[in-house]
Amino acid sequence: MSVVRDLRVLLRFRDFRRLLAVRLLSQGADGVYQVALATYVVFSPEKQTSAGAIAAAMAVLLLPYSLVGPFAGVLLDRWRRRQVFLYGNLLRTLMACVTAVLMLGGVPDWLFYVSALCVTAVNRFILAGLSAALPRVVDDERLVMANSLSPTAGTLAATAGGGLAFLVRLVAADSDAAVVLLGAALYLGSAVASLSLAPERLGPDRESVPPRLGTALADATRDLVAGVRYLAAPQRREAARALIAMSLMRFCYGALLVLVLMLCRYALSSDADHGLTLLGLALGISGAGFFAAAVVTPWAAGRLGPGGWIAVCAAAAAVLEPALGLPFATGPMLVAAFVLGLITQGAKISTDTIVQHTVDDGFRGRVFSVYDVLFNVAFVGAAAVAALMLPPDGRSVALVVTVAVVYAAVAVAMYRFERQ
Length: 420
Description:
Layout: H1 2-10, H2 14-43, H3 51-76, H4 81-105, H5 109-133, H6 143-171, H7 176-194, H8 213-232, H9 237-267, H10 272-304, H11 306-325, H12 330-358, H13 361-389, H14 397-419
Helix pairs in contact: 2-3, 2-4, 2-5, 2-6, 2-7, 3-5, 3-8, 3-13, 4-5, 4-7, 6-7, 8-13, 9-10, 9-12, 9-13, 9-14, 10-11, 10-12, 11-12, 11-14
């Protein structure tokens, strides 16, 4: 297989192997920690989980990406990246241990969320640093290959970490703190792995560091505003509409995820452990839908155009989401998880394609920064709206219908734009 052959070639680079080890341990720990946080908030037997608590957990997991993301690169161009991996993962090890202690201590929820927020905020610097360091450990000829395989391997590590956390949580009763400590051990392993790289090996070059931090942060803010203004121009209408459509579809997916969490916790399960098993199954099936989208979308977007495929995805969701969701039953919910995974990822792939093809290269990075902010804020906003609409058991006809209407509006708008 070409993927195996490419990976074998990359692994000949000693420092690439070391950087990959840092990535795999770090993102594996992310998967463990995020599942531990979610299961503690939603599936702890002693906690009467509300949709508001789920929304708060989603905000903790995602808002750092939106608030810190546009400025992470400014700081990473000033700090030695090896040191970012070392001290960042040591800090996360410490804060994860603090989180475990807080879980056992029955402290107020806000204190627990502050601790968790510190862990997830550092993650943005780690991920950006891993991408920025990659050109320092492979040659130019193999950089594209490394950019393709390294993040994919990290995603698989995060998935494996999440699966391991689910397994530990199911096997050992009342083990949320133990799962968090497992994540802390993996963060520590990533910090230790970074020591195999020389402090100056990953850059940045000292002569390339901008002279003033305040100026660099102001420039980053101006760049983000410039990206928004660029998208507002009439000639960028195709990219702007695709981003708005994707943000709305991400909103719908986030609202439905909160609904599924509440259904698994209360309406469809007899106890917390059974609900956790059902949630793991739903997420796995949704992941299969994401994979199916990667297979189907190139063919569908090639025949319909990326905008046309977004319209078809939204229209299918508008029809199938209420048909499968309104029974509030296990079987239809699992089918809906696959459909929504396919539809959401298919629309995202198409949106990425539209942005890459219609945005000038000089603005592409800034537009993708705007895209990243919209993507995560839409998800957190959806959780907040769901928290206001959902009853304690998660059975909300109003939310299901509202989401279907949003999908239908996206489908109509994208269809009309494609016709033009």
